Amino acid sequence: MEAFLFIPCLVEHVLPQVGEATTAVLVRAGVTPTLPKGQTCCGQFAYKRGRADLVRPLARRFVELFQDAPAVVCPSGSCTAMVRRYPSLFAEDDPFREQAEEVAAKTFELGQFLVERLGMVDLGARCDLTAALHGSCQTTRVLGAGSATEALLAKVAGLTLVPLARPERCCGFGGAFSIDYPEASEAIVSEKIDDIVVSGADAVITAEPSCLLNIASAMAKRDLPIKALHLAEVLAGEGI
């Protein structure tokens, strides 16, 4: 099977290892990944600012770029959720809306694609760590893909998952929220780090790049020897 890769801005510019790991995971799953050239931002930052007018050109570009894909895979729940919203940006009588619906329906977050589309949970990965799982707001609440992440991690050899006291809590990033309300954002992520420390984990795993960056940065400020890993990095590993 072939799948087109949609690489988010944050992954391309800040966390390239997540993109590389995503490619490795798909290959391990027997999928041939294709990376279309000319990708742009999904537009979620502008969308959350109420600027749908700025998102529509990006949505049109995305749909045109990925319309021939058998499936579209993205290592970000929030970017995937944005693509799923594309149809709502166009009037019901706009012929482009149907094209947007078709592309949105075949766009998946990585874990969701593996479990729901391919029916795979065991990729033969190994990760000798005790880790806590942070389920991002967009992945769990908007996409409903949190169970897919858990199912995949449950099959990783050597990985011990420990619960967080408040697993449902946001990490405080929230896109524009962390910029508009930095003090509140820092307080929220500080509580998240407290919970990770108390859990006794030596790593935290998440399927969302923005959460990964936010949590990793907060832990670095405290000089904590706790790893922050993306789901793809764990699934691509043969022993971390």
UniProtKB/TrEMBL annotation:
InterPro entries: Cys_rich_dom. This is Fe-S oxidoreductase. GO terms for molecular function: oxidoreductase activity. Residues 5-83, 132-215 form the Cysteine-rich domain. GO terms for cellular component: cytosol.
